[in-house]
Design the sequence.
């Protein structure tokens, strides 16, 4: 059995070396991939370009293949531009959830996205990164470092739990994406390595047990709107961590708990479209309309 990775160990190593978590993660990847730091960051910047295109695609009002979702990102964008004073969550949160919806809709319309860590959760990380970049005037090179941090967090979650909705429910997809985004946000906002870990722990605790129940088996409902909710959760956790708030449970233990919870979820709540929202009368009606039958 492959040895589990430890976010706590990496955090301790970064603090011992008196460096940022991003710089520590980059050096890890330099050694593991036998690439230069420049080459790694250039790869990350190419992913940022795809993420940015996905946001723009979604904001155009695209419709999903199944027809269950589409146009909500552009609707929210227009509303916030016309009535900025009505933004209940303020500028940062409102922009983040708009972009999260946009990427989710781009994915559902078969657009090109970056799985971060999965296609169904692809809107969370870019929405948080781009919102922070706009607020704090960050460069793509700085965001590229944030992507490396997010990737490292995803690697640990994959090692200790899962990134698959079929294995661990949506906590493994949108939950992991939110954890990756929260940790990256903390590092981009000059948080300490320990604060990165606190953000990851807190966001996963808030999303523990989230089920995967796609209506008609499509990555549309509730997936797209869950991306927006997960982006908000990431911002909440990052804000708390940067303020010095700590998780009572260490981050590796929280990730392990997520893995255990995922394994305890019944099959009906793990991407089979047999439970949750997929099993509601309306969810079943959509399945019959689209495919002519209902999964039993």
Sequence:
């Amino acid at each position: 059995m492959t040895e589990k990775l430890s976010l706590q160990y990496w955090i301790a190593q970064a603090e011992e070396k008196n460096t940022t978590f991003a710089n520590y993660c980059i050096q890890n990847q330099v050694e593991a991939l036998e690439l230069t730091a420049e080459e790694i960051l250039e790869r990350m910047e190419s992913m940022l370009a795809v993420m940015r295109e996905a946001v723009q695609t979604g904001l155009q009002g695209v419709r999903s293949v199944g027809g269950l979702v589409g146009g909500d990102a552009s609707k929210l964008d227009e509303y916030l531009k016309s009535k900025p004073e009505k933004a209940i969550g303020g500028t940062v949160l409102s922009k983040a959830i708009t972009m999260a919806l946009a990427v989710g809709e781009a994915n559902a319309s078969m657009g090109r996205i970056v799985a971060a860590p999965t296609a169904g959760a692809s809107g969370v990380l870019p929405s948080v990164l781009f919102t922070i970049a706009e607020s704090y005037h960050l460069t793509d090179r700085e965001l590229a470092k944030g992507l490396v941090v997010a990737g490292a967090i995803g690697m640990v979650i994959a090692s200790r739990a899962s990134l698959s909705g079929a294995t661990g429910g949506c906590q493994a997809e949108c939950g992991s994406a939110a954890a990756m985004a929260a940790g990256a946000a903390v590092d981009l906002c000059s948080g300490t390595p320990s604060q990165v870990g606190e953000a990851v722990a807190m966001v996963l605790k808030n999303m523990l047990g989230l089920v995967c129940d796609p209506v008609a088996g499509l990555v549309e409902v509730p997936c797209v709107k869950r991306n927006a909710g997960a982006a908000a959760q990431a911002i909440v956790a990052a804000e708390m961590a940067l303020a010095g708030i700590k998780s009572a449970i260490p981050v590796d233990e929280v990730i392990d708990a997520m893995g255990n919870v995922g394994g305890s979820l019944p099959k009906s709540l793990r991407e089979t479209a047999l439970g949750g929202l997929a099993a509601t009368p309306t969810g079943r009606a959509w399945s019959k309309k689209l495919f002519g039958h209902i999964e039993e």
Summary: The first helix runs from residue 7 to 16.
